[in-house]
Amino acid sequence: MAIDLTDRIIQPSPAPKKGRWNPWRRVVQLLCGVLLVALPLTNGMRLDVRRHEFYFAWHRTAAQDLLMLFWVSMLATWALVAVSVLYGRLWCGWVCPQTMASDFADSLKKRLDKAFRTRPGQPRFALSRGVWSLILLAMSVGTGMTVAAYWLSPSDVGHAALRPWTDVPAALTVYIIAAVVAADMLWVRRKFCYSACPYGPLMGIVADKNTLAVRYLNEREDDCIKCGKCVVDCPMGIDIKNGAGQLACINCGVCVDSCNDVLGKRGKAGLIEYRYGLEPERAASNLTWKQRLGFWDATRFWVLATLVVFAGYVGLSLFGHEKMTATAIANGAITQDAAGIHNDYLLTVENGTPEPQTYALSVDGMNARAEIHGASTLTLAPREQRAAPLILTGPATETAPGERKVVTLNLVSPKERAQVKLVFYRPE
Ligand code: SF4
Ligand code: SF4
């Protein structure tokens, strides 16, 4: 059946509200939307270019670790490749923000037409479309603020959106993004998926006969009653009966629920399914648990294994090196006065955490005092390494002339602790 895509995209159908897949797809989309908004607001992921603060997984990383941003981006890219190899274009229909925005815009349009009880050509149709456009414009500004909050502080973004003249660069960021999103939601929507998005053509390279896809079961062709509901309900306006893997098919599964709905009323199973291949024996009930999870061959196993190793490496690099280091060397300067004997050292300390730390200095093994520039504490910025002059002052009564005594210097902060062995010398 030949379908005019252009016409279908202007007049999309709403996805069925019931069914096996669409309620779950809506839940996944809702969770993804909440996550996209929550991440920058809760410091789950945010690169604050003004304050030089990088947050990932609710974990602050210092500006000097921004190289990790590259590896995090590479990990996200590889994760997308791995999901695509294992589960085909599930990303497009279930998680992609472009699909979420298009689904929202199309669904809102239908709901408003229903609420205003209007159709094209009727007087209240323009009112329905006007309200639709205003809601989408407001959503676009909200999206612009959300995206800007990934790069600026949420408070800066809020102020800039409300009073643009007080922070022109931030306001421009918000409203330029909002303008792009508004154009996308008002005019582009699904056209982007089959005309500009590189993901579909790339999937053509990755996909093979074992790739998960929405497929029409040709072996049961005789059961098709040619009702056309799968085509009418398809948000992309295509006919899945023409074959799996069509460039415009986003694997949303709407047609699966539509056909189940039609044939279910006649006591038959639907003719469209998510399947790893076309053969009749690939029905879900015939698969082993490995095949259900998508492990059809060694390539898929290795793709997942490399993802796990890569994620482990990035995770350890980001979160696993929160260890302070401390070393000290005697610089040979030793003096004596009424306060006691003074031994000088060069102390080098690295703060291993992404937060500032204040270390209290104390000495074990001798009744001595440890000071840096006259203070018995040392404060370091996140991840800072500093070399500082340390003076150990001990009483003459605890050592004999010419004695070398090994003592322990303690550096203790609320999050970290280190010990350094020092040799305290009393001159002859
Ligand atoms: S053919 Fe089916 S799975 Fe593909 S886009 Fe249309 S409704 Fe979604
Ligand atoms: S919804 Fe099912 S029965 Fe109706 S045309 Fe599509 S495949 Fe055939």
UniProtKB/TrEMBL annotation:
Nucleotide-binding listed as a keyword: no
UniProt entry keywords in alphabetical sequence: 4Fe-4S, Electron transport, Iron, Iron-sulfur, Metal-binding, Transport
Cellular component GO terms held in the UniProt record: plasma membrane
SUPFAM superfamilies, sorted: 4Fe-4S ferredoxins
Alphabetical list of InterPro entries matching this protein: 4Fe4S_Fe-S-bd, 4Fe4S_Fe_S_CS, Electron_Trans/Redox, FixG_C, Ig-like_fold
Acetylation recorded as keyword: no
Pfam families: Fer4_18, Fer4_5, FixG_C
Origin organism lineage: Bacteria, Bacillati, Armatimonadota, Armatimonadia, Capsulimonadales
Source organism (scientific name): Capsulimonas corticalis
TM stretches of this protein: none
Gene3D superfamilies: 3.30.70.20, Immunoglobulins
GO MF annotations, alphabetized: 4 iron, 4 sulfur cluster binding; metal ion binding
Protein name as it appears in the record: Cytochrome c oxidase accessory protein CcoG
